[in-house]
């Protein structure tokens, strides 16, 4: 009888111990759930807190903290991608919109009486509208694919005619500038680069050359053969770049002191050359920059030639 009673007490104590453990765990779990809810409420109200790791310490659980920190990293990447997208689209749409506006004004003034002006203007507007549409689509694709250009790795384009088209647009927009073109290539050359991206690269180079030119307002573009590549050089005379500045030129949002003080470039975001670097990396194009008192500043783009 005594043994039965002792066994009953032992079983009862074990049950009480189990219930106590369960109760404690329930309290801890409820506390964790409350802490997680509190953190989520704060994050929903203040998304910027995702970058503040201290907020996750409220959870008091290492596994959950690590999970939230991983989530915070992904959220930060998405927010940065969104910010870059908005900045890139704003930067890259300005030029085609300006070209279209320039030709519309030209048509309004001369197009009614000159069939040739009318035809050329309409062709340019159609071309820039198509390029703008493609650019927006490509920018969206770039965001979706995290900056890859896989869909156009094998694309090619005729380089000289593309250069002439882009330069023609700049001559219209900047009629006070002297745009000179020189080519030592005797036959049409095909480059291993997607046409729209090549146009985008040229627009960035010419736009920079215009913005940073001195009072001479002269921009020179040359096309030459260099081994198995074709070299496109864009030169101007203006503020010279130091070696230290050249080293950082292709970093996103990098601005030189001159660009911050220059009225023509104050509104810029400093992403044009970083976009150029992305294009160059995608198609294995070479980029070189030289800045000397005698010859001015020259950006050279080497494009692999296609012999197919």
Quick overview of this protein structure:
It catalyses: ATP + protein L-histidine = ADP + protein N-phospho-L-histidine. This protein has 308 residues and is of the alpha+beta class. The chain folds into two domains: 14-78, no CATH class; 155-308, Heat Shock Protein 90.
Q: Summarize the biggest pleated sheet.
A: 7 strands, mixed
Order of helices and strands: HHHEHEEHEEHHHEE
* Structural class determined from secondary elements: alpha+beta
Low-pLDDT ranges:
265-269
Distance between the termini: 101 Å
Helix content: 55-70%
CATH superfamily of the largest domain: Histidine kinase-like ATPase, C-terminal domain
Quaternary structure of the protein: single chain
Reconstruct the topology from this structure:
Blueprint: H1 2-45, H2 62-111, H3 115-144, E1 157-158, H4 159-173, E2 178-183, E3 190-191, H5 195-211, E4 218-226, E5 229-236, H6 243-248, H7 257-261, H8 272-283, E6 286-292, E7 296-306
Parallel strand pairs: 2-4
Antiparallel strand pairs: 1-3, 3-7, 4-5, 5-7, 6-7
